Amino acid sequence: MVALLLENFAITCFRVYNVNEQMRVEVQTYKTGKPTVAGVLGIISGCFALVGALFFVVPMVALGVIGASFAVPILLAIALVPAVPGILALLGGIYAMKRKIWGLALAGSIASAIICPVLGIPALILTALSRNEFE
User: Could you give the CA distance from residue 20 to residue 8 in angstroms, rounded to a whole number?
Assistant: First the structure.
């Protein structure tokens, strides 16, 4: 049994153990579409947040031109509330699609869950389930 295992390969739980000529075992994991779907959902959620932040930036520019400078810092602070998680969701989505830096991809999916739970919660679940596919 051991000789048969060493001659060919063993498939266990989504992992393939190949044995090369030098009798070294190489581990290969199968790639699924989970990180790609999570990345797309995170990017869409981040875009929603940045569009929402623009609704505060446009009046801020208009009030700055008119001369009502007292409202500009208030609108800037309000615009940063959706912009920061939106940028984090965009970065996390990009890195999830690249399958790099799992922690950043997870943080981005958490931010997208805060921004838009309908898109963010599936992104969070898919990112958490696909941890083994990241470098």
Answer: 9
Written as tens digits, the pLDDT of the chain (135 aa) is 444 444 444 344 444 555 555 666 555 667 889 999 999 999 999 999 999 888 888 877 777 666 666 777 777 888 888 899 999 999 999 999 999 999 999 999 999 999 999 999 999 999 999 998 888
Question: String of b and e for 98-113 (b: at least 16 CB within 10 Å)?
Answer: ebebbebbbbbbbbbb
Model's pTM, two decimal places? 0.72
Q: Is 47 found in the same domain as 14?
A: no
Total of domains in the chain: 2
- Same-domain pairing of 6 and 25: yes
Residues 62 and 105 in one domain: yes
The answer on 45 and 18 residing in a single domain is no
